[in-house]
Design a protein that fits this description.
Helix content of chain B: 40-55%
Shape of chain B: globular
Number of strands of chain B: 7
Order of helices and strands of chain B: HHHHHHHHHEHEEHEHEEE
Low-confidence stretches of chain A: 67-249, 267-289, 343-356, 425-432, 710-735, 896-903, 1099-1121
Largest interface: A-B, 62 and 56 residues
Oligomer: heterodimer
Radius of gyration of chain B: 24 Å
Distance between the termini of chain A: 129 Å
Number of helices of chain A: 46
Number of helices of chain B: 12
Helix content of chain A: 55-70%
Number of strands of chain A: 0
Largest sheet of chain B: 5 strands, antiparallel
Shape of chain A: elongated
Strand content of chain B: 5-15%
Largest sheet of chain A: none
Strand content of chain A: under 5%
Chain lengths: 1121, 329
């Protein structure tokens, strides 16, 4: 295999050809015949290339990752890989951090020859299952399962090499592996007969996953220390009854080994995996916390790294590796490698002339590792971009990534900013409706009021329809078309503008996807649970010491088991699912089911064929293929993740994955049958992906531990027990201060009751949120006020128009937005001021002062972090939005009614709002108007006193204003003018004896004066006085006999005198009256009135009034003359 | 003043085929002296609107419009000062204001080049002196001031009543120190359809928790209950029951609880949510007194949830809505 790699490195082979060769796909015509010939000689080795490559990479990185989180080992078993050991590659085993797969031979250089022979032997064997059984069985007789049950599962062997298991077994155990050798007192992760997981753990669908160990991640078990007195065995495993008797001795053995290891740790300069003693201070590991800076210019043999990265990436892309995420984890480990372990000199010396071959180490420095990792990540960008937002953020902020590939960093940042894939641990609640989205569904995003209104209507109709459907679709006899058809068509018929389409589509999509997707998730998770339970029950009877100790026994078991029909015909279901293109639903539960299988199951032909089918599926899920009708990306990712996990389960033989050629083609599935299966629908989101495969979250933890500066021994939550008082030790390099602070906070919480943490986090969350609100109500509101006054100034200087609103907004924002910077300072002050009190109030009185003050400080910093993060990201946009709203408000108020701009007077403080209601007055005046206009009964009329009272009430109401709204006031103003016209024309029928049906002159003038005073002093809306001289109103006078003009003249003079109308205005109105066709005599009289009004000298007010009062009948005289 | 179902039916019965004029209302007042004018007018208006909704279409066929227009032209040809249009409307049993609109529209079609826009027509109805024909202007004005159920003046009165009662309610809430968010505040936060008031701290009325108050200044008959439920409640529902998945997963209002109470309590058996302003006042004055139905007009309606220990909280920063638990006392 090394030969293949070497020829690649020497560029005798192109990567594309090699990958095609490995993938066993048909030879392309473009392939160089020479290359093909070179490869054909290596044909028998083909399937061993990928394991070789993966092992090679692990081996090469061994010096970089000794103290990092152990790479999840694919191949378990005891290991030869002692920490610190260099030179010959470790034999692998699960504990070896540097070895995913066990090597084929002791030396990689000679690996090329050995496997072929073994492989040949295997081929002659009766079948893979039996073949597999023979090796371990034959060689392990006498060793028996009891001695090393934790080493069961994955035997170190490449593609079923029969001899390797024995080698592995006889190797010394890996002392530094926490999972195999947990600290005394802790619950062994795989106790009670189940073997510890050797691969990515089948774990966390959290509690429900009974088989899994407490370990929930890629890496080593959490350091949860349970007192040994606890009945841990029964508690942690459902297989309590199946504990092999060797278990106890195992415990003893482990303890022994642990002691041994701690001895070694003291001797070794680079402890690989120090024990964590509960309660005891952590040994100082400052040296390992500091990361060696990585420098792109110091990368050695770039070209070689690029080539290997390309080959590796291509293998990943073609799904030639068992688990995509495992590889990503490995790559991220390389990315976050802290420093190179000093190796023996001979290792470091590059062999002259062999720089580009496998002779010299691939990774000679941290720079090389990072370079390689970044290269691979570039190829895997598409997958990365579908990870959750948190991981993306950490990736985008990784300084090494930025340094080595700014382009990739840019793309990751863009992906992060565009991502909505927040993953929370809590399951999403069941939704009813998509919330109204003020961000997008507001008026500003619609072309017109009408479009907005239509959208709102549609929204309502949509939910009405949805609700009705939910309520009734199960009723017998309910017909969709009859029930909803017309309404849906009507709703869709309202979609005219393109922009409405987009809004509606968003609503629809959200409802269907926050609906369909959720339903899918619920169904899928239930199915998984059921399948797991079924698997548990189905395979429970076959649990036992495994694998069978002898081949004879195994054979007899196999022949017996093959008689038993499968409890559920999962193969048929799988085939059906694949045909119907709903693998995304079928496979995850099937994986759960199979994960509980016992060791014999994969050897049974029936199940073997299922695995082959799954393998075929796995290989076909090439993520880069995206075409019409293809499975959705996240659906594929979910399948890859669950299948990858399944392939890592100890009971699944490894050689299954590296199947021999030909076998794959056996199970061609006809997927053409159904074109629109679930697979092509976006039913999987990150939430579901992470719920089904929580181990993907390890990627984030790994990156986070890099940021926090912890060495991330466990890769999980770092719970170092370090006294908080050590905060002040200035020994840490500055860049890790923040990380250390975070660590200290974690440690602090670890020591305290959980309620303290909840309290602090709660306070921080609330204070942070309140802080934002406070800034909005103070700083932003103040800026808006400034914007308003600036705008007023602008309007004054530039006149009514004030210029283009958009331009105005820009000017204002450029002046005001810089003030937003104050928000951070004010926000900090706010959090500083408010958080401690809240923490103090919520914690028990008896909380020790030191704890209290730490809790307060943490709350302050968390709240500040939250508030400042929001503010720094949003303050400018917020100010802009508020100012924009203020501008449009001001301009609107500016618009049609200049008079309305004046300060509106309200009623005095003493007012008790006893004035009649505006609605009542409009109604009363309307009645008077309708009486006057008629038709009316002979006995109908109004009393003059009533009219005076009505006007008096109108005055009261206009002065109180408590209940008045502008439209009512406008109508009242108009009605009052109409009333004046009727008074002037003496058209109001007065109650009383028939002779007195007319209003007395004096009464009429009194009423007109009341109206004049209301118009002048009390109305705050413009009064349409010009109505008085409109033809329709003037014509009222034409009907009266004899015609009397004195009241009109009186009214016009008063209007001028009170400044309600200008002389010119009245003259213009009178002038335009001539355009109307009037009866001949009426035109003459109108002309006389006009002349009389014009002839009136401009006399001071008091004189004119006196004159009017003295000569009340002047108009009458005029009319009669 | 309690209005029984029987009384309501009697009033409604009297309103069949009665023109919506001042005279009709006067007769109604004489017939039912114990009822306030506002109540009678509101019932009248609603009954008449139902009638118009049923018959609206037949007045808008082109044949009908043409025949009305011809009759109008003949009428004013004989005597322009006679109430031609008003009498025509009464004769064909249609609202005078709506008849005025039909004729005005037809008139403008004939005299203007382009068909008149809706806004032009509305503006002329609001101010008939803009109508180019003096006779038609007078006829239209006469229709509008004589119509007590339709037209710009009636619309204005209804609007004013709505506004006044919102103010009354606000004063009441302020007086009782009940903290609330009003429509403007809610709108400022981006909500297009809002109830009049959201109580920031819920109150209980007859064991029901009240979150929102919506003032409806019109008589609460069954029909309008239904309409308001349809037009408003579900709209609020769509907007305000949306949840923030990060904050709370369990908030769910029980639909069974959506009961309405009407006043007068003619439909109180099955509708429990509508209570009159007087009752609210009484309730607020003395929380212990069980409610009685005093005023007949207008009414309020409340929404509440089964899980009565939660209330609306609008998140300032992110503009999301969450529901936070309120410690029940």
């Amino acid at each position: 295999m090394a030969a293949v790699l070497e020829s690649l490195l020497r560029e005798e082979l192109s990567v594309a050809v090699a990958v095609r060769w490995i993938a066993r796909s048909a030879q392309s015509s473009e392939d160089d015949p020479r290359e093909a010939a070179a490869l054909s000689s290596l044909r028998p080795l083909r399937k061993e290339f990928v394991p070789f490559l993966l092992n090679f990479l692990r081996e090469q990185s061994s010096r970089v990752l000794p103290q990092g989180p152990p790479t999840p080992a694919k191949a378990p078993g005891s290991s030869t890989g002692l920490p610190g050991r260099s030179g010959g590659p470790p034999r692998g085993g699960r504990g070896a951090r540097n070895q995913l797969f066990p090597p084929i031979e002791a030396s990689s250089a000679t690996a090329a020859d050995a496997p072929s022979a073994r492989r040949g032997g295997r081929r002659r064997g009766p079948g893979p299952a039996r073949e597999r059984g023979r090796g371990p069985g034959g060689l392990e007789e006498g060793v028996s399962g009891e001695c090393l049950p934790w080493a069961g599962g994955r035997r170190p062997r490449s593609s079923g090499s029969p001899s390797s298991p024995s080698l592995a077994r006889s190797d010394p155990p890996n002392l530094s592996n926490l999972e195999e050798f947990p600290p005394v007192g802790s619950v062994p992760p795989g106790s009670a007969g189940t073997k510890p997981s050797r691969r990515i753990n089948p774990t966390p669908v959290s509690e429900e996953r009974s088989l899994s160990k407490p370990k929930t991640c890629f890496t080593s078990p959490p350091i949860s220390c349970v007192p040994s007195s606890q009945p841990s065995v029964l508690d942690t495993s459902p297989w309590g009854h199946g504990i092999p008797s060797g278990c106890r001795s195992l415990q003893e053995e482990r303890e022994m080994l642990r002691k041994e290891r701690s001895k070694q740790l003291q001797q070794s300069p680079t402890p690989a995996c120090p024990t964590l003693e509960p309660g005891s201070p952590h040994p100082s590991r400052t040296g390992h916390l500091t990361a060696e800076p990585a420098d792109p210019t110091r990368v050695s043999s770039r070209h070689r790294l690029e080539l290997v990265a390309l080959v590796y990436s291509s293998c990943i892309a073609e799904n030639l590796v068992p688990n995509l995420f495992l590889e990503l984890f490995f790559v991220l480990q390389l990315l976050t490698a802290r420093r190179m372990v000093a190796a023996k000199d001979s290792d470091l010396e590059p062999t002259p002339g062999a720089v580009d071959s496998l002779e010299s180490p691939l990774f000679q420095s941290v720079h090389d590792c990072v370079f390689f990792a970044v290269q691979v990540l570039e190829h895997q960008f598409h997958v990365l971009s579908h990870l959750d937002k948190g991981t993306l953020k950490l990736l985008a902020e990784n300084e090494r990534l930025l340094c080595f590939s700014p382009a990739l960093q840019g793309r990751l940042r863009a992906a992060y900013e565009g991502s909505v894939a927040k993953v929370s641990l809590a399951m999403p609640p069941s939704a009813q409706a998509v919330s109204f989205q003020p961000e997008t569904d507001n008026r500003a995003n619609f072309s017109s009021d009408r479009a907005f209104h239509t959208f709102k209507k549609q929204r309502d109709v949509f939910y009405e329809v949805l609700r009705e459907w939910e309520d009734r679709h199960e009723e017998p006899g309910w017909d969709f078309e009859k029930g909803l058809g017309s309404r849906i068509r009507a709703m869709m018929g309202q979609l005219s503008a393109a922009c409405s389409h987009s809004h509606f589509v968003r609503l629809f999509q959200k409802q269907l996807l926050q609906g369909e997707r959720r339903q899918f998730a619920v169904v899928l998770l239930s199915l998984r649970l059921l399948a797991k339970f079924l698997g548990f029950v189905a395979f429970l009877p076959y649990r036992g010491p495994e694998p069978p100790p002898t081949r004879e026994l195994q054979d007899s078991i196999l022949s017996l088991r093959s008689q038993v029909p499968p409890v559920l015909d999962v193969r048929a279901l799988l085939q059906q699912g694949l045909r119907a293109r709903r693998a995304v639903l079928t496979v995850p539960w099937l994986v759960e089911f199979l994960s509980l299988a016992d060791h014999i199951v994969p050897m049974l032909d029936y199940y073997r064929s299922i695995f082959t089918l799954l393998l075929h599926l796995h290989r076909s899920l090439v993520l880069s293929k995206e075409s019409e009708g293809e499975m959705c990306f996240l659906n594929k990712l979910l399948l890859l993740a669950v299948l990858g996990w399944l392939f890592q389960i100890p009971t699944v033989p490894e050689d299954l994955f590296f199947l021999e050629e030909g076998q794959l083609d056996v199970f061609e599935v006809d997927t053409v049958a159904s074109e629109h299966g679930l697979d092509s629908m976006p039913v999987v989101d990150q939430q579901l992906l992470y719920t089904c495969c929580p181990y993907i979250g390890e990627l984030r933890k790994l990156l986070a531990s890099w940021v926090s500066g912890s060495s991330g021994r466990s890769g999980g939550l770092v719970r170092k027990i370090t006294p908080t008082t050590t905060t002040g030790l200035g020994a840490q390099p500055p860049q890790t201060t923040q990380g250390l602070q975070a660590q200290l906070a974690q440690a602090f919480f670890h020591n305290q009751p959980p309620s303290l943490r909840r309290t602090v986090e709660f306070v921080a969350e609330r204070i942070g949120s309140n802080c934002v609100k406070h800034i909005k109500a103070t700083l932003v509101a103040e800026l808006v006020r400034q914007a308003e006054s600036l705008l007023q100034e602008q309007l004054v200087t530039q006149g009514q128009e004030g210029g283009d609103p958009a331009q105005l907004l820009e000017i204002l924002c450029s002046q005001l937005c810089p003030h937003g910077a104050q928000a951070l300072t004010q926000g900090r002050e706010f959090c500083q001021k408010k958080s401690p009190g809240a923490v103090r109030a919520l914690l028990p009185e008896e909380t020790p002062a030191a704890v209290l003050s730490s809790a307060e400080n943490i709350a302050v910093s968390l709240a500040t972090e939250k508030a400042c993060a929001w503010l720094s990201a949003n303050i400018t946009a917020l100010i802009r939005r508020e100012v924009k709203a203020a501008v449009s408000r001001t301009l609107r108020a500016q618009g049609p009614e200049p008079a309305a701009r004046g300060e509106r007077r309200g009623c005095s403080r003493a007012c008790e709002h006893h004035a009649p209601l505006p609605s009542h007055l409009i109604s009363e005046i309307k009645d008077v108007l309708s009486l006057a206009v008629g038709p009316r009964d002979p006995e109908e009329g109004v009393a003059p006193e009533y009219l005076e009272q009505l006007l008096g009430q109108l005055g009261q109401m206009l002065r109180c204003r408590q209940f008045l709204c502008p439209p009512a006031e406008q109508h009242l103003a108009k009605c009052s003018v109409e009333l004046a016209s009727l008074l002037v024309a003496d058209q109001i029928p007065i109650l009383g004896p028939p002779a007195q049906h007319q209003l007395e002159r004096g009464q009429a003038r009194r009423l007109l004066l009341m109206l004049l005073s209301l118009w002048k002093d009390d109305f705050q809306v413009p009064v349409p006085l010009q109505l008085l001289l409109r033809p329709r109103n003037v014509a009222l006078l034409a009907d009266t006999r004899p015609r009397e003009w004195d009241l009109l003249l009186f009214l016009l003079r008063e209007l001028v005198e009170k400044g309600l109308m200008r002389r010119m205005e009245i003259e213009a109105c009178l002038g335009s009256l001539h355009e109307t066709q009037w009866p001949g005599d009426f035109s003459e009289e109108l002309a006389t009135l006009f002349n009389l009004f014009l002839a009136e000298p401009h006399v001071p007010e008091h004189q004119l009034r006196a004159c009017e009062l003295v000569q009340p009948n002047r108009g009458t005289v005029l009319a009669q003359s | 003043m309690i209005l029984t179902k029987a009384q309501y039916d009697e009033i409604a019965q009297c309103l069949v085929s009665v023109p919506p004029t001042r005279q009709s209302l006067r007769k109604l007042k004489q017939r039912f002296p114990s009822q306030s004018q506002a109540t009678l007018l509101s019932i009248f208006s609603q009954e008449y609107q139902k009638h118009i909704k049923r018959t609206h279409a037949k007045h808008h066929t082109s044949e009908a419009i043409e025949s009305y227009y011809q009759r109008y032209l003949n009428g004013v040809g004989e005597n322009g000062a006679a109430p031609v249009l008003l009498e025509l409307a009464n004769e064909v049993d249609y609202a005078p204001s709506l008849m005025a609109r039909i004729i005005l529209e037809r008139f403008l079609q004939e005299h203007e080049e382009a068909p008149p826009s809706k806004s032009v027509i509305n503006s002329m109805l609001r101010d008939p002196s803009q109508i180019p024909d003096g006779v038609l202007a007078n006829q239209v004005y006469q229709c509008i001031v004589n119509d007590c159920c339709y037209g710009p003046l009636v619309d204005c009165i209804k609007h004013a009543i709505g506004h006044e009662h919102e103010v009354l309610l606000r004063d009441l809430l302020l007086e009782k120190n009940l903290s609330f968010l009003d429509e403007d505040q809610l709108r400022a936060r981006g909500y297009d359809k809002t109830p009049d008031f959201i109580l920031q701290v819920p109150v209980a009325v007859e064991g029901h928790i009240i979150h929102w108050i919506e003032s409806k200044a019109s008589f609460g008959d069954e029909c309008s209950h239904h309409a308001y439920l349809h037009d408003q409640f579900w709209s609020y529902w769509n907007r305000f029951t949306a949840f923030d998945p990060e904050l709370d997963s369990n908030w769910r209002v029980s639909l069974d609880f959506l009961k309405c109470r009407s006043t007068p309590p003619m439909v109180s058996q099955d509708m429990e949510l509508f209570v009159p302003i007087g009752d609210l006042k009484l309730f607020l004055d003395n929380l212990e007194i069980s409610m009685s139905f005093k005023e007949d007009f207008p009414f309020f309606f409340f929404f509440h949830s089964e899980e009565n220990c939660r209330f609306l909280e609008l998140e300032g920063g992110s503009e999301t809505i969450s529901f936070s638990p309120l410690v029940s006392s």
